[in-house]
Automatic annotation (TrEMBL), chains A, B:
Its main location: membrane. This is Magnesium transporter MgtE. InterPro entries: CBS_dom, CBS_dom_sf, Mg_transptr_MgtE_intracell_dom, MgtE_N_sf, MgtE_transporter, SLC41_membr_dom, SLC41_membr_dom_sf. Residues 216-272 form the CBS domain. Keywords: CBS domain, Cell membrane, Magnesium, Membrane, Metal-binding, Transmembrane, Transmembrane helix, Transport. The gene is mgtE. It comes from the Bacteria. Belongs to the SLC41A transporter family. It is found in: Cell membrane; Membrane.
Amino acid sequence: MSETADIPTEDTPQGEVDVSKAVALAILIEEGDGAGIGRLLEGLHPADIADLIEQLNSEQQEKLARIAPDVLTGDVLANLQWDTREVVAAELDPAHLAAAIQELDSDDATLLIEELDDALRQQVLAEVPEENRAALESSLSFDEETAGRLMQREFVAAPDFWTVGHTIDHMRAAGDELPELFFDVYVVNTGFEPVGAVPVSRLMRSRRDVKLADIMEEVRIRIEPDTDQEDVAYYFEKYHLISAPVVDASGRLSGMLTVDDMVEVIQEENKEDLLALAGVNEAGLTDTVFESVKSRAPWLLVNLGTAVLASGVIALFDAAITQLVALAVLMPIVASMGGNAGTQSLAVAVRAISSRDLTSANARRVIIREMLTGTFNGLIFAVVMGVVAGLWFQNWALAAVIAIAMVINLACAGLAGILVPMGLKRFGADPAVSSSVFVTTVTDVVGFFAFLGLAAMVLL
Amino acid sequence: MSETADIPTEDTPQGEVDVSKAVALAILIEEGDGAGIGRLLEGLHPADIADLIEQLNSEQQEKLARIAPDVLTGDVLANLQWDTREVVAAELDPAHLAAAIQELDSDDATLLIEELDDALRQQVLAEVPEENRAALESSLSFDEETAGRLMQREFVAAPDFWTVGHTIDHMRAAGDELPELFFDVYVVNTGFEPVGAVPVSRLMRSRRDVKLADIMEEVRIRIEPDTDQEDVAYYFEKYHLISAPVVDASGRLSGMLTVDDMVEVIQEENKEDLLALAGVNEAGLTDTVFESVKSRAPWLLVNLGTAVLASGVIALFDAAITQLVALAVLMPIVASMGGNAGTQSLAVAVRAISSRDLTSANARRVIIREMLTGTFNGLIFAVVMGVVAGLWFQNWALAAVIAIAMVINLACAGLAGILVPMGLKRFGADPAVSSSVFVTTVTDVVGFFAFLGLAAMVLL
C-alpha cells in the first residue's frame, strides 16, 4: 500500500477529470457494456466517479443508470451535482434508491431524496424501513436551504458534570451507535440544551479526571432547523467552526451540522451571486440549450426594456445628432464607461453585503467613498477622453461636453453601484439579483442625457 | 452557564456586527479611553472584536492600536482582514507583535507575519525565540498562496503497524506536544510517508486491538508545500476533507492543512473571481478613495480603449446615421443586448472552469450549447425588437435590419463568452480577469458593425 496508488501517472493533474476514462465511459455506454463500466470505475473515489458521470450528456447519463445501476451507489449519488442526480434518479429503481439512501448519513440521505419528484419520493420512502423513514420525513418537513435539511440527526452528547474519562468510556462502549464521523462532543445541561462543545482531539489530550465543563468551548450561536443555510455558513466561516449543534424551538439539542456540508453551501451561494450579477437564473453544465435559454431570456428581456428606455433618451435629441453626427459616434463611450464604473462599485458592494462587512455603522463612509471614487475616475477619464475627442473631431467645445458628461456619469455610477444593492437589501431582496440591470439603466440614461443634453445646449 | 449568554438580545442578529458597540468603540477611541475600550470588548469572541475594528476608518484603527494595544491579541489579529491588519500592525510595538504571534499555531502566525513590511518583519522575528523563528522563516520561504504558507507544522502521526490502543495511549502521554486542534491521525510507513489517515472519532469508536492500517482512509492526493492554495481548496471540497497531510519533495510528512483555513481560501478565491469579472483588481472595505481609484482605473482605461474602438466602427457609418437618425437611436440596443448575453455566457463558463467541470471531454458540447443558446435568444429578441422598431419608426426594412443584427450579435456573444475564457485559460491566464473586456469588445464591435453595415447596404 502506497500513498501514490491512486494518483494518476499520466497527463491528468490529480483530482481532475481523467479525460481518457471519460471517453472510455462514453464508449462503453454506447456499447451497452454494463460489466465493462463496472470494471472501469472499480476502486475510484465516489467523487471521481461522479465527476466522470458529469462529463456525459443527459442521454448517456440515463442509459448509464439503466445498464449499470450498481455503480450509482449512495456515495456516488451524493457526490453528483443536483441536475445530474435528477437525471439518473429518474431512471433508477425505487428499491435501488432506497438502498442507496440507507448507506448514507441522514443529511446526505435528505439531500438525495428531496430532489425526487413527489411520486418517486413516495415510492422510495415506502421501501425504506419504518424508523429511517420517520427521520427522513421529519428532515423533509423543514424548508429547503435551511439548517434542518442539512443537519445530521446522529451526534454525540454528554452531560456537563461528566469527566473526560467517563465520556471516553461511554463513547467506546457506544461504538456503532455513534455517527460515522464527528468532531465535537456536545455538552448538555439537564434540559438537554447544548451549553458547550469539546473537540474530540481536546478530549484525547486532557487528563481523565478533568470535567467537560472546564475544557468546553461555549456555544455562541443558536442554530434552529429553520435557520437559513447562508446564515449558518456565515457562522461557520466567522467562528472557524468544524461542527455546530442545532436546537429545536425549546432549545433542546436535536442535530449536528458539519463543515464539509458548509463548504458546499458556501460554493453554492457564491455561484448564485456570480451568476445573478451576470443575469443568469440558474446554470448547470449539463443544461440543454432549452434550459439555458429559459434561464437567461428573462433577464435579457428586462435588459431590452431598459435599453429601449435609454434609446428613448437618445430619440429626444435626434435633431442634435442629425446636425452633429460626432455625437452619435461618441455617446456610447460615455454610457459604456458609466456601465463599467457602476459594475465595479456594484461588485464591491455585493461582496461587502454578503460578507456582512457593510453595516449601518460604516454605510455613510462607504457611500461617500464610492461616490468620490466615481468622481475621481470621472475626472481622470474626462481629461483623457476630452483630449481624444478634441483631437479626433477638432472640436474643443465637443471635448468639453464629453468631459463634463463623463464626470457626471461616473459619479452617478459610483452612487448607483452602492445605493441600488443597499436599497434592494433593505427591501428584503437579494442584492445580487437584478442590481446590474438597475445600475446600467442609471448609467445609460444619465450618460446619454448628460452628454446629448449638454451638447444640445452648448454646441448647437 | 447558559447557551444564550453571548447571544445578543437586542436588534442585532447573532453573529452580525453590533452597531451600538461599533459606535461606542469609535467614541471611546476619539476620547482616547483605552481602559474603557478594554471593558467594552471584554468577553467578546476574537472574531466579533475583529468585526468591530473593521467598522472603524483607518485613522481610528491606528489610534486604537496606539491607545489600547492589549485588545489586539494574536487571535484578534488573525481574525482581521488583511488590509485592516496591515493598518494596525504598523502601529504596534514589535515586541507586542512577537508575543501575539507566539500565541498562535504556526499557520496563523505565518499569515500574520507575512504581511508586515520587511523592516518590521525583521524586528518582530528578532523578538521571537530561536526555535519558533526558524519554523516561521521556513514557512515564509514558500511562495504566497501556496500550501506551504497555510500549513501547520504541528500534526499527529503514527506508524501503520500500531494498534488503536497503542495510538491512544501515545497521544494521551504526549498531551501538550500535540497540536491545539486536530481531526485526523496520519498513518506513516517506515519512510515517514503518509499512507493513510484515521479520523479521531473513528479511533474513539474502534476496539483497542484493531490495527490503524485496517481502519485508515487512503491518502489520495499528494499536496506539497508549493501546491497552489486554489488546488488545495479544490481537493478539500471535492473529497470532503477535514484535514490533509503535506509532504516534502522526498514524500515525507511535513505538515498539516485544515478545512477552516480552506474555507477562507475558498471565500478569497470566489471574491477575486467576482471582482475580477467586474474589473476591480482588489477591494477592501476600509480602502480609501485613492486605493479604490487605483484598483479600478486600470480596467476603466482598458474599457475606454475598447469603447473608442467601437466608436471607430460607428464613425465608419456616419453618413448613414446622418441620413437616418433612427440608426443612432437603435444601435445601442443591439450592443447592449450582445453585451448582456456575452456576460451571461461568460459567467457560466468562468464558473465551470473554476469548478473544473469544463474539460476537453465536454468542451465541444458546451461551446455548441452556448452558441445555440445565443442564437435562440437572438431569434426571440429579434422578433420582439423587430416589432418594437417597426412600430416606433414605421419602417419595416429597419425592423428587419435590427432583427438580423440581433441574431448575429447574440450568437457571437454566446461564442465569445465561452471561447474567450477558455482561450485565456489555455494560455495560462486567469479566465476571470480581463475576459469581460474582450467579450464586450466583441459584442460592441460586432453589434455596431452588423447593424450599421446591414443598414447602409439595405436601407440607403
